[in-house]
Each structure stands twice: as C-alpha cells, then as structure tokens.
Amino acid sequence: MAEVPVDAFYLPDPSDSSRFTSTELTRGPWSPDAQHAGPPSALLGYAIERCEPRPRFQVGRVAVEILGPVPLAPLTVDAKVTRSGKSVELIEAVLSSDRGPVLKANAWRFRLAEPPLDIPPPAMPTGTRPGPDTAMGRNSFPSAHAVGFHTGVEYRFVTGGFDEPGPAVCWIRLRYPIVAGQTPSPLQRALAAADSGNGVSAVLDWSRYLFINTDLTVTLYRQPVGEWVCLDAVTYPQPHGIGMAESVLFDEQGPIGRSTQTLFMGPR
C-alpha cells in the first residue's frame, strides 16, 4: 500500500470517480493487511446515495455481503438501479479490488410520504440511552497496530467494553470523513458504526477465537441526527460455530433502526 495522508478512510482518485485509495484508518483487528468492514460498508453507502438520486427518496435498508477480506489497496465501487419504481427502488452496489469483488450490497430506497402519515405512536423501541457525554471513552480496542479503524473512530461505552465480554451499549463517532473532502452522511455514519456490533458485544476471548461477520444488514426507519450512533448490542454464540450479533441503533434523540450480522466463529 502506498504511503498516503491519514486524514480520511478513503482518498478519491481525481481521474476516476469510481476509484478510491484505502488509508491505514481502514485497517481491522484480524489482519494488518485487511480492512475492518465498517469503512467499506460506508463507502458502498456513499456510492448508493450518489446513484441516480431522486428528490424525497431515502434509503431504508442496506444489506452487505462480505465476499472475503478487503485488502488495504485501491478499490473500485459501482452502483446501479436494478429495480426502479414510483414508491420503492432497489440499488445494487459492488466494491472491488484488483482481485475482484470483495463486498456487494443491495439497498432499498423509499419515497417519503407527503404529507406525513397520520399514524399512532410507533410500536418500535422507544426511549433513549445515556448520551455520549455521560459515557466512558475507552481505548482498549484489541489491536497491535498504531493506526487502524480503532483510531479512526471514537468509542464511548455506557455499559460493557472490549475487555468485558457480553452485551454492551456503545456510542460511536467517526473522527475522519469516509471520503476525503466529503462530510459523512447519516447513512455512512450508521453503516460504519453498525459493523462494530459483534466487536463491542463480543463474548469470546479475542486472543483465542475469531468471530468474523459474513454480512451486515442495517434497517433505518429514521436517519440518525448528529455525529454519534449508539449500538445496544448483543452477540448470540453457538457451539457449532455459527453466531449472530444484533444491535438496536440510536442517536441522541432516540431509536433509529436495527442491524444484524451473521458470524463465523472458530479458534484462531
């Protein structure tokens, strides 16, 4: 990987709008040469939002399939509308390295109701979580590398921690833009944070086990407001090695959606 300024997760190629240089901020905990899935998922969100944008349409769900390790290398992203409609449409996006596709995503984009619907109080989760100003900032992310995703974001735990196995409530904020020169959108912030659900709520010893997600599905019934996204996360491990991490997502105003990750679990 070429030496590049570490002021964003990705640097756009000035000669090709679909190509991006990955910086060290994308590095994950499992390998020095592989990215955390949060930044490339957010990069897919970046491309999805720019794909044939329509007034008063909003992304409500993104399902990311992780096809293999994402190298710290130049990446190309392509997005297209594969099912158009008056009320909903489906967008497909593919993130590729020089070796081929590494992530794929399907996103549903919805037309917003105008005027707003007259509906009863929602049956979705209500309430808020203690805000990031009251939570503890911790730097115990299990990584041997000086620079990586753990330095590109700020974690503040209300409950739990990387060194405390089990469910956790954790606020996450991007310290840098996903794409240099671009303010991260609410969707990008949500995707980047949601992929940490299995990490903040890990139940297995990081030094003995792998628990790698093969996918990330984020459903947002409201776009997050502000820089912080909160994960109320829990991991469900099974002896046969298939697990799931589930997070209820919040901003400082209340719930915004949910995310799930299917996990491969095994000894290191």
Helicity range: 10-25%
How many distinct beta strands?
14
Mind telling me which CATH architecture this is? Beta Barrel
The separation of the N and C termini measures 26 Å
Number of helices: 4
Give me the CATH fold name: Porin
Structural class, by secondary structure, is mainly beta
> Largest sheet at a glance?
14 strands, antiparallel
Structure description:
This protein is mainly beta and 268 residues long. The protein has one domain: Beta Barrel (Porin). Helix content is 11%, strand content 44%. The protein is built from four helices and 14 strands. Strands 1, 2, 3, 4, 5, 6, 7, 8, 9, 10, 11, 12, 13 and 14 form a 14-stranded antiparallel beta sheet that branches. A hairpin with a 2-residue loop joins strand 1 (10-13) and strand 2. Helix 1 runs antiparallel to helix 3. The longest helix has 12 residues, at 38-49. The radius of gyration is 18 Å and the shape is globular. The relative contact order is 0.17.
